[in-house]
Specification:
By secondary structure, the protein is α+β, with helices and mostly antiparallel strands. The protein contains ten helices and 14 strands. The chain folds into two domains: 314 residues, PPM-type phosphatase domain (Phosphatase 2c, domain 1, 4-Layer Sandwich), CATH 3.60.40.10; 56 residues. The strands form three sheets. Strands 1, 3, 4, 5, 6, 7 and 11 form a seven-stranded antiparallel sheet that branches.
């Protein structure tokens, strides 16, 4: 694919280290592409990674995850997005594990990841850990990914109810993560409905996004403290950049015990989509023919006017011996003028085209379209911070008989 500096989606992001005093171990990135020189289909890839491990090791793990997966997506031809995501996540896990075993200070480091890849209007997701992807559509919020935690497994086995999960002592026990000693299993389930079976969720990959749809990626520093309904209310109530900051502040007001990272991608609505098409058109060349035609017309009209003025002056000038005006002079001029006005428009200036607006990059992610639906996105290096909130443990789930 070919990297681009504009996206076909609205992109906003917010991040905060939280209130615990820890460094930032989260990383995120958004990249935009066109598929090839001959295929102008737009592609946007977004990833949020939450690093785990003390002494800045989690920060390194998250950065390896973001860099490895993002580069693999860029290097692909987008013909097999699910396979590309799967292989990229496995490679990222191997890279993290290799770094952890080669440096004693980094032993035990790992990372979660939540990935969204939009090709045209088709959606693909992949995840490992408890960073999440949501879809907001028609006033409802849906969690597309499944947490890989002890709590989630306990809920699925009927040991716990969902309302018992928040605040549970094992809430941060992760069962799947990048950098694990065992081969990681990327989760390609895309759950559009709570009652879908796994086979159906896999078939949902490539689902079509609709105008106005929003994709919402976040680390667990947000979802541990903010309910899904509160996320929906904030997004519906304000502009996107303000809504994201509001959600970060809400998590911090409730303790902010972990880092908080949010990335949102929104599909333009119908009229915004039209603006996008207009804004990316190259300004057309003004027609040289119209300029030449008008120039000739203007010159000819001017010439006729001069002849007419001269004839009038000659006919009315004072003279002691008046000279009769030739009877064929004035009618000839008038006839020429009438023919000229019939053939050439009497425009005072050549026609102009309405200039096509250009797109100016914005220093901050913005929900407000800048003539088009394109907004610059933050890079991974602009969002660095640390946290070791998670715990890795092999705690068995024993479902009741």
């Amino acid at each position: 694919m070919i990297p681009r500096d504009r996206a076909h989606l609205f992109i906003s992001a917010a991040t905060h280290a939280g209130m615990s005093g820890k460094n930032n171990e989260d990383r995120y990135a958004v990249t935009a592409h066109r598929l090839s020189e001959t295929d102008a289909t737009s592609s946007v890839f977004a990833i949020v990674a939450d690093g785990i491990g003390g002494h800045r090791a989690g920060e390194i793990a998250a950065e390896i995850a973001v860099d490895t997966i993002s580069h693999a997506v860029t290097a692909s031809d987008a013909s097999q997005p699910q396979e590309t995501l799967k292989e990229a996540i496995i490679q990222a896990s191997e890279n993290i594990r290799h770094q952890a075993t080669s440096d004693e200070a980094r032993q035990g480091m790992g990372s979660t990841c939540a990935c969204v890849w939009v090709i045209g209007d088709k959606l693909y997701t992949a995840s490992v850990g408890d960073s999440r992807v949501y879809l907001i559509r028609d006033g409802a919020i849906r969690q597309l990914t499944t947490d890989h935690t002890w709590i989630q497994e306990a809920i699925e086995h009927g040991i716990l109810k969902p309302e018992q999960a928040r605040g549970h002592p094992r809430a941060h026990v992760i069962r799947r993560y990048l950098g694990s000693k065992t081969a990681v299993q990327p989760d390609l389930r895309l759950r559009l409905s709570p009652d879908e079976d796994d086979e159906h969720t896999l078939d949902n990959q490539g689902t079509q996004l609709l105008p106005g749809d929003m994709l919402f990626l976040c680390s667990d520093g947000l979802t541990d403290l903010v309910e899904d309904s509160e996320i929906l209310a904030a997004i519906q109530g304000d502009k996107m950049e303000k809504a994201l900051n509001q959600l970060v502040n809400l998590a911090n007001e409730r303790g902010g015990h972990d880092n908080i990272t949010i990335v949102s991608l929104q599909v333009p609505k119908g009229e915004e989509e039209t603006l996008t098409k207009i804004s990316i058109q190259k300004p057309r060349r003004r027609s040289r023919v119209s300029w030449v035609s008008c120039a000739i017309a203007g010159a000819l009209i001017g010439f006729v006017v001069i002849i007419l003025a001269a004839a009038v002056w000659y006919a009315t000038r004072p003279s002691t011996t008046p000279t009769p005006i030739p009877t064929t002079g004035l009618p000839a001029v008038i006839e020429t003028l009438e023919i000229t006005e019939t053939i050439f428009p009497t425009e005072a200036s050549p026609p102009t085209e309405t200039p096509i607006p250009t797109v100016t990059p914005s220093p901050e992610p913005s929900q407000t379209p800048i003539q088009a639906t394109y907004t610059p996105w933050p890079t991974a290096t602009e969002s660095a911070y640390l946290s070791d909130q998670h715990t890795f443990a092999d705690i068995s789930i024993n479902p009741p008989p």
